[in-house]
Amino acid sequence: MSIYEPTGARRRNPFYSVPVLGWVVRDLKEGGPDTIYYLLVALFTLLVLAVMQWGVVALTMTALALVPVVMLVLILITVGK
């Protein structure tokens, strides 16, 4: 047995080492097709809990943070991709 990796071995992405985000990204990439729905339910639950804790301010800040995403989607639709 050698201390070196065999040349055919796949290297893991170092981003997967980040505790929470890395786990989610790895599961989205390597997991089953229904993983995205679990992520959406978890994010929606966090949004509901934030609104319960801080009120409409949390909902407003979420909408404000999603403005660039929506603009990018509108541009991509306009371009035809």
Structural account:
The protein has 81 residues and is mainly α. It has one domain (14-79). It is built from four helices and no strands. Helix 2 packs across helix 3 (56-65). The longest helix has 20 residues, at 35-54. The mean pLDDT is 86.
Please state roughly what percent of the residues sit in beta strands, choosing from under 5%, 5-15%, 15-25%, 25-35%, 35-45% or over 45%. under 5%
- Helix/strand-derived category reads mainly alpha
Main sheet properties: none
Question: What would you report as the Rg, rounded to the nearest angstrom?
Answer: 19 Å
Shape: extended
Roughly how many Å apart are the termini?
49 Å
From the structure provided, what is the oligomeric state, counting identical versus distinct chains?
A: single chain
Report the strand count.
0
Number of helices: 4
Task: Compute the number of structural domains.
Answer: 1
Instruction: Give the H and E element order.
Output: HHHH
Helix content: 55-70%
Q: Quote the average pLDDT.
A: 86
Structural descriptors:
4 helices, mainly alpha
Briefly, what is this?
The protein has 81 residues and is an all-alpha fold. The protein contains 4 helices and no strands. It is extended, with a radius of gyration of 19 Å.
